[in-house]
Amino acid sequence: MTDYTPEIVYEMPVQQYVTYNFEKSAQEVGRIVWPNNEDQHYLKGCYWSPDGTCLLTVVRGGGMHICELPSDLYTTDVVMSSRPITALTPAVSVPEHGLIYDVCWYPGMNSSLPATCCWLSSGHEGPVHLWDAFTGTLRCTYRGYNAVDEIDPALSVSFSADGQNIFCGSKKSVKIFHTSRPGRDYVMYDVSHPASCIVASHAQPGVVAIGSWKNTIELVSQSDGTFRHLCKFQGHKGGITTMAFSLDGFKLFSGARKDKEVICWDLRVPGRPLFTLAREVSTNQRIAIDLSRCGRYLVSGGTDGKVLAWDVSQNVSPQENMQMPLHSDCCNGVSLHPTKPILATSSGQHHTQDPLHHSRTPTNCENALCMWWVGNQQEDPDLITAIIRAATNS
After folding, report:
1. pLDDT tens digits for range 352-381
2. What are the boundaries of the signal sequence (predicted)?
3. Is the four-CA dihedral 280, 284, 285, 289 of positive or negative sign?
4. pTM of the full structure
5. β-strand 156-159 against 165-169: which pairing, if any?
6. Residues near 104 by beta carbon (within 8 Å), at least 6 away in sequence
7. Residue ranges of domains in the chain, CATH in brackets
8. Which residues contact 217 (CB under 8 A, 6 or more apart)?
9. End-to-end alpha-carbon separation of the chain, Å?
10. Which residues neighbour 186 within 8 Å (Cβ) at sequence distance 6 or greater?
11. What tens digit of pLDDT does each residue of 239-255 get?
C-alpha cells in the first residue's frame, strides 16, 4: 500500500475536572473476557482515547481491539446501584498475531474529525504502524533501520505533545519521525540502553522523558528536529515500564518491572526523588500507572489484582492509599476516562502450564477488560422497595 497519512490538525484538549470517589466501592459497568487457551490470550494494557469515546486494548496473540463507551454513560453523572453490567463487544479489531510491544493514541484524537482518529503500534521485528480507529485498516508505516539496514523494531512509541512527531525507542536509539511523512525519513538520537518507555510533557512542550531497561530515565528537550540531553535520573531497581508527567509538568511519576515503588521526581531538583509510593509488582510485566486529567489522583495496577489510588496534589508523600481489589488475577492496565469518573482496567498474565496435569491447584486466568464507575452512586429506590417487601413477606 502507499505510505500516506492525511494532514492532521491538532486541537489542544479542553481542561476537564472530574469528581472521583475512590473511597467508595467501584461499581462495574462494563466487561469483556477473552478465553484462555494454550496460547494464553491475556491482556496487555488498556488506553482511553483522548476524547473518551472508546477504549483500546492489546491481547497477547489476539491483536488489538477497540470497545466503545456505553451510550448511557455519556450524559449521566450518577449511576444507579442496580445498573446491569454492559457486555462489551469490540467495535474495531485488528488481528495482529505477532508480539505487540507498545501502542499510543494520537493526542488530538476527536471522533468528529476522522483524520485524527488513529493510533500507533509497534511489534516484534516489524515497523511502526498507524491504524485507522474507525475501520481498523492500516494507514501507513514508519520504518526505522539499524546499521546493517535491517528493520529496527521499536520497543516503545509515543507522539509528541502537539502530535506533529512520533518517537520510536529501540535498543540503541530513539528515532524521530514527522507524523505526516511516513516511510524511512527520520532523525536519530543515540541512547546508551534500550528505550523501553517514552512520554512527552504536555505542560512543557518539547520536554520528553526516555526510560530504559537499565533502570535509568533521561530527560531531553526537543530542538532543531532532534533531542538535547538535559539530565538523567536513577533510582529504580528494574527496567522502566511506565511514566507520567504531572499536570504542571514539574513532576514525573515512574514505575519499573519487579520494583514495588512508584517514584515521584521533582524536575526542578533533578536527581533526587520527591517521594515514593508502594505497590505490588513482582514480575517483569508492564504494570501501568495513570494520572487523572485534573492532576490530583494517581492510579496504579498491581500483580495482586488490586488498583491503588493516591491523592498526589501536594508536594509531599500521600499519607495513605485507596485500595480497590478489582481483579483476581494481575491487573496490568489502568486508564482514567478524560471527562467521566470511569476507570478502565485490564487483567491477565502468563501462567506456567503443566502439560502432564500434575498440579492440583487450578490456574486463575481472568483476561478481562473492565470499566468501573468511581464517581457518585445512588441506590435504586425500586430495588430497595423490592428488598423490603421480600423481607416482610418472608
Report:
1. 766 555 554 556 788 999 999 999 888 876
2. none
3. positive
4. 0.90
5. antiparallel
6. 47, 119, 120, 157, 158, 159
7. 27-348+364-393 (2.130.10.10)
8. 209, 210, 211, 232, 233, 234, 240, 243, 252, 254, 265
9. 69
10. 142, 144, 168, 175, 176, 177
11. 999 999 999 999 999 99
